[in-house]
Amino acid sequence: MMTLRSLGLGLLAMGLLVLPARGDDKDKKVVVDLPGPIDSLDDLQDSGRMLFMMADANRDGQISQQEAIDAGNLLVGGYFFRADKDGNGSVSKEESDQAREALLARRPILRVIVQRAQAKDPKVTAATRNVQQGVMSLLDTNGDGQIQAPEVKQAVQTTVQSVYAVADTNRDGQMSPSEVNAAIAGAVRSVVQAMYQKADADGNGQLSQAEYDKAIVEPAHVVFLVLDANNDGQLSPQEFQAAERALTSQIRKMYLPEPANSPKNLIESGRTPAQAAPVPNFNALGVRPAQPQPAPTPTPTPAPQPRQ
After folding, report:
1. Is residue 236 part of a domain?
2. CB–CB of 218/123 below 8 Å?
3. Bond prior to 20 in cis (omega within 30° of 0)
4. Domains identified in the chain, total number
5. pLDDT at 140 exceeding the cut of 50
6. What are phi and psi for residue 35, nearest 5 degrees?
7. Model confidence at 115, in pLDDT bands (50, 70, 90)?
8. Which residue, among 205, 161, 168, has the nearest Cα to 186 in the 3D structure?
9. What is the spatial distance between Cα 111 and Cα 192, in angstroms, rounded to a whole number?
């Protein structure tokens, strides 16, 4: 019975990737439907194209290093200014800790996972602390214990330059869509290779059955620690039910219904945007469209006076 419950919970987690599927009949192509705004592979590709176009400021179909740096500053700057509570242009360790707490407050399930993993395995706490200290020392170039805006900008620039040094294969200083896709594939390959090397404990270039089992068991052990709410070393049916409820709740939070005034719904319903939802009138806020200026009145030229 417990094995069936375990299998059911695993299938529920896999539902994030495969359920529900779209398709009105068997003859139509079935598209994998993920919960949330990105609910299919096509949507994921469209989102990637949108991000590429946002970074491509001059719309030349390429992303230059400066465009990538500007996009990185825009992205990282949002997190920086959110963490900089006092607005002095620096993020102290206290502000960094507060930003981390705010993130965990918005993601309760993440807080539970972190707390349980740290409480049951001191190595997790030490590793987390080492990562935080490493990031801080990497960004804090002047060693004053604070992260300042120029240091963040420098980190973004250095990161972009490092990426271009590897991913810009034709060395033209631009990143084409093909090079971006190739860079992503290369990053995934590097992650897989790093995982393989970590699992290859004796470094002989091969995975024994014991090394493979350990690589599989360690992540499963972390999941077990998270699910074992009362720390008794047993997983009860109640704990499985609690995990199922938590996972289902997270799936529901990820779902974003398509608005009534989306282009798709407007086309299908035949309604106008104003019929689907109220359209704000920005002119009421004092914003007036530019009015054409009247042409200047020509000054009449006086007639020449006859000579006396």
Report:
1. no
2. no
3. yes
4. 1
5. yes
6. -70, 145
7. low
8. 168
9. 27
For residue 136, being part of any structural domain is answered with yes
Q: 32: pLDDT confidence band, cut at 50, 70 and 90?
A: very low
CA distance 146 to 307: 85
Q: What is the mean pLDDT of residues 147-167?
A: 89
Domain that holds residue 111: 36-175
pLDDT for 285 equals 62
How many Å separate Cα 30 from the centre of its chain?
Answer: 26
* pTM for this model (two decimals): 0.54
The continuous run of DSSP H or E covering 91 comes out as strand 90-92
What amino acid occupies position 179? Answer: E
Rounded to a whole number of angstroms, the CA Rg of the chain reads: 29
CB-based contact 151:141 (threshold 8 Å): yes
Q: What is the pLDDT of residues 54-106, one digit of tens each?
A: 899 998 999 999 999 999 888 888 878 888 888 888 888 888 888 878 877 76
Q: Would 227 be classed as within a structural domain? A: no
Q: Judge whether 44 and 38 are in contact, CB under 8 Å.
A: yes
CB 118 within 8 A of CB 125: yes
285 lies in a domain? Answer: no
Whole-number pLDDT of residue 256 = 63
Q: How far apart are CA 284 and CA 293, in angstroms?
A: 22
H or E element, residue 32: strand 31-32
Least trusted range by pLDDT, from 44-53, 162-171, 296-305: 296-305
Task: Taking the CA atoms of 219, 222, 226 and 230 in sequence, report the sign of the dihedral they define.
Answer: positive
Which token pair is 298?
A: 């020509």
Task: Dig out the tokens for 142 from the structure.
Answer: 């002047």
C-alpha 6/C-alpha 239 separation (Å) is: 11
What sign results for the dihedral spanned by CA atoms 59, 64, 68, 70? negative
